[in-house]
Structures are given as structure tokens and as C-alpha cells.
Amino acid sequence: MIHVEGLTKYYDTFCAVDHIDLDVKGGEIVGLLGPNGAGKTTTLRMLTGYFQPTSGDIKVKTHSIYENPLAIKQLIGYLPESAPLYKSMIVYDYLDHIARIRGLAGEDKQKRIAELADMCAMRGIMHKTIDTLSKGLKQRVGLAHAMMSDPEILILDEPTSGLDPNQIVEIREIIRKIGREKTVILSTHILSEAEATCDRIVIINKGRIIADGSTQELTAGKGGDRQIQIGLMGVTADEAAARLKEVPGIVEVVPMDCDEADTIRLNMVCRSEGDVRPDLYATVKATDWVLVELGREAKNLETIFRELTREN
Amino acid sequence: MRQALLIFNREFKDYFISPIAYIVIAVFLIVTGWLFFSTFFIFDQADMRRFFNLLPFVFALVVPIITMRLFSEEINVGSYELLLTLPVTFRDIIIGKFLAAVAFAAAMLLPTLSYPIFISTIGDLDWGTTLGGYIGAILLAGAYAGIGLFASSLTRNQIIACIVAMVICVTLAIVDQMLFFFPQSIVDVITFISSNAHFSNIAKGILDSRDLLYFVSVAFLGLYATHLSMEEK
């Protein structure tokens, strides 16, 4: 659906996007993740044709941005960050204007506006001036704007930034609903959001793609270290650590703080292949220690994100 | 072209949403009405010539106020991004916005049609000359609107856009009255670039193709420069 090759953008001498290659299949929801200033917005702006790339090529279906930018603009619906709409217009007039520009007229236009009003739950605000709307409502009007032509591709730049938790859930639900049929690319720096809404996550840092895959692939990848926490009674931390280190598969044992008296907690890093918990249990059973806690946690997206995008 | 008309439609309506439009129209009518009629009876001539003579200078102050928001506001608010990602070309956008500004200037001139109607009741008014004057006035507004649109495309600050356009337009309007500052060799050139010199022919009732060509050229240059400025961004 979308093919990006060697995409690069310089602002004067500053390189915002550095040779990005990306292939997006039809029907995917792709999350573009990265710290602020990583080049997410610049990448999206080049995809939508707002910026000209310094070099590299973008192909949407068979159209290249250099040869047929208008055809691409027909295929893409775009919502920039914080939905910069014409503030002085009434919601209905605004959608009407966009519908006309998108080539809808008469009956079709009325029908489409009504559909969008239902889909984005804006029936009650159609007569209001955009200026008077709250951020969440503006965002919905922006979404309606982006979906006006029923585009095959939807590009959303930080669709939930600045919204309250309820509004975030609402907008996410709308996005997921759309994502069943359409290709969606959204940027965000909220990790839980990417995890919750996206099929595939692309992490960008300093203009480069540093990770690309599904949430599972990303969390399992990178060595796939898993962490196991264990809570014990009737033993000192050093003694337990020395003994547990001998269990095959355990790489490292680190004592952790514990609030409860007479209890120790240890954090263990183990290799991802196989489950070491049965061995751990057997080891503990052979002693007279009391096992009060045994838990495992896969590395979450947040840890991976921090590891990948941390300075140095 | 359909897209340009849609943009024109939105921009033109947008003028009348804010009170600025009405203030500009009111100030324009008061200033020109007062300057024109305060000496009208002294000259004792039933024509519109001295009204039209006011326009190169008054429009140089008013048209930049009309055009200043056309691009600057969109760039500032960010709606420029949405506009450019819609399936419209730069040309559609420029023509739409330009026509909206010219149409607004025409709407501003509309109430002044009462002057010739009033004058024709008390004297013998030449309607041909008057009609020619109005056509020229629209062309003059077009030339200034081209300049104003270009100034607006340069900056996100409306005030800067307005002042830049005013400086250029006022210069074109008054430069032919400062000819004694210039060396003899370039006096002809200076006279040629002056909007006032070209418009005074029109005010007299002479519709010369050279004058018309001048206004069309200035407008075109302004719009072309706007196109370049948009590409640059």
C-alpha cells in the first residue's frame, strides 16, 4: 500500500529524517513511536505531501509523490496534531466545505456528513462554532475531516495528545473501528496507546528507524530477557542468591527492597528460551525456606522504548 | 478551477464572519466620502473624477488590511497544513484567495455607487466614464491584492504582512509625485511603475490598454511571487 524508500529530510543542516525505509501493507494499523523531536511528524508530513523530501521516494499504491501528488492526496485522510481547523466556521459548514473540496455533492454529501456525525458522535455539536469546542470535540471534527472522502489510508499525528482519559478512550475506539477496514498510520509518544491500538510498531529515534515489528515481536526480541521475582521467608538474601544462581537459565540475581519483615525479595534475569520456574520451585522445595511469591514479567514496551531511545 | 471557486467561496464568507470586515468598509466609506464631498460643491462639476483620484492612495492602505490574513492566519493557526493536504493545487488556493480579496474590495465599492446616482440627479453625469472608473478601481484592487497576497504568504504575522504590503502599495501610489528626487534618465520608468499615473488616466475616463495591462501585470507578478513563496515553504 505504502512504500517508502530512503526518505530523508534536512532542515537547513539539521537532519530530521535520515534514510527511512518502510513498507505498510493494506489494513495495518501502524504506530510510529519515538521521543519528541525524533522525526515522527516530519515523516508523516512528507507522507501527506505537505513537505517535500530532501531525497528518497514515497509510493502510495502506484503513485509517486513526485509525479502525482494530487492522486495521493485523494487516497489519504490526514489529521495533524491538535486539529488546526478553521476556527471561525460552524462545524456543519466546515464539513460541508471539506466535502465539496473532496468532490462530494448533493445527496452523497449530505449522507456522508450524517454518517460521520454518527461515527464520531458529533450530532449535538454540528451547529457550534469550532472555536468554542473543547479539545476532544475538535479532535473528532478533525477525524471527520480526515475521513470525509472515505480514504483508504488514514494518517493521524498524535491523535490523543492533550485529551482527558475519557476522550482518549473514545478517540481510540473510533480509530480501532476505522482500522478494521483501513490502513492507519498514527504517531504517538504514549506507549500504552501504541500497544493498545496498533498491529505494528515502528520506533524512530533521531530520524532513524531503530525497531519495527508487532508488540509481541518487540517485547520478545532484543534477547528477550525475562524477569522473575521471588519472595522468600526463613533465609538471608545472600544465601538465597548464591543458591538460586546455580539454577540453569538464571543469568543474574539481584536482591530487591522489601517492606515486610522476615521476608526477602529477589529479582532474577533469565534467558527467554524455556521456563525456569519449575526448576526454581524444585530448588526452593529442597530447602526449608518458605516460598511466598513467584512471578514472571516479560519486558514491556516501555522498557524497550527507553533502552532503544536513551542517549548513548 | 472548481476547487478554486470553493476556496473563494469559503474565504469570501469568512470575511463577513469577523467584525473587521464591517469596520474596514465603514472606515473606507467615511474617509473617501468625506474627502470627496468636502470639496465636491466647490469644484461644481458633476463627475466622479476626484473620487477615483483618491483610490490609488486609499486602496494602498485598505487592500493590505483585506489581504493580510489570507495566508498569515492559516500559517499561524496551522490550518495551512490541512489545506495543503487536501486535493487542491497551489494555483487553486492562490486564485481562490485572490478572487475573495478582489470580491471583498468590490463589495466595499458597492455602496459608493450611490454617489453617481446622487450626482446624476443634480447634474449631467457621464455614465460611461463612471463605469470605466469602477472597472479600473477593481483592477487597481486586483493589483494591490496580488501584492498583499504575496506579503501574506511570507509571514505568519498578519501585522508584518499588512505593513509590507502597505509600504509597497503606497510607494506605487505616490512615487509619481516624487519624480524630482530621481535623475532625469529614469523618470519615465518611475512614472511607468506608478499606479497613480496609470489610474489617473482611468479616472479621467480613458480606458487605455496599456494602463489595463499594467494592473493585470502587477496582479500577475504578485500571484506568481506568491506561488514561488509557497513552493519555497
How would you sum up this structure, described in words?
The complex is a heterodimer of chains A (about 300) and B (about 230). In chain A, the strands form 3 sheets. A 6-stranded mixed beta sheet of chain A has the order 6-7-8-3-9-10, sandwiched between helices. Chain A has a 4-stranded antiparallel beta sheet with strand order 2-1-4-5, with helices on one face. Chain A is an alpha/beta fold. The two termini of chain A are about 35 Å apart. In chain A, about 40% of the residues are buried. Chain A is built from 11 helices and 14 strands. Helix content of chain B is about 80%, strand content about 0%. Chain B has helices at about 1-15, 20-45, 50-65, 70-75, 80-85, 90-110, 115-120, 125-155, 160-175, 185-195, 195-205, 210-230. Chain B is mainly α and about 230 residues long. At the A-B interface, helix 2 and helix 3 of A face helix 1 and helix 5 of B.
What structural class should be given to the helix and strand makeup of chain B?
A: mainly alpha
> How can the largest sheet of chain A be summarized?
6 strands, mixed
**What percent of residues of chain B adopt helix (DSSP H or I)?**
over 70%
Please provide the count of β strands of chain A. 14
How far apart lie the N and C ends of chain A? 35 Å
Classify the oligomer.
heterodimer
Mean of residue pLDDT of chain A? 84
Biggest sheet strand line-up of chain A? 6-7-8-3-9-10
Unreliable residue runs of chain A: none
Q: Helical stretch count of chain A?
A: 11
Compute the number of helices of chain B. Answer: 12
Q: What does the radius of gyration of chain B come to?
A: 18 Å
The secondary-structure element order of chain A is EEEHEEHEHHHEHEHEEHEHEEHEH
Judged by helices, strands and strand pairing, the structural class of chain A is: alpha/beta
Strand share of the residues of chain B?
under 5%
Poorly predicted regions of chain B: none
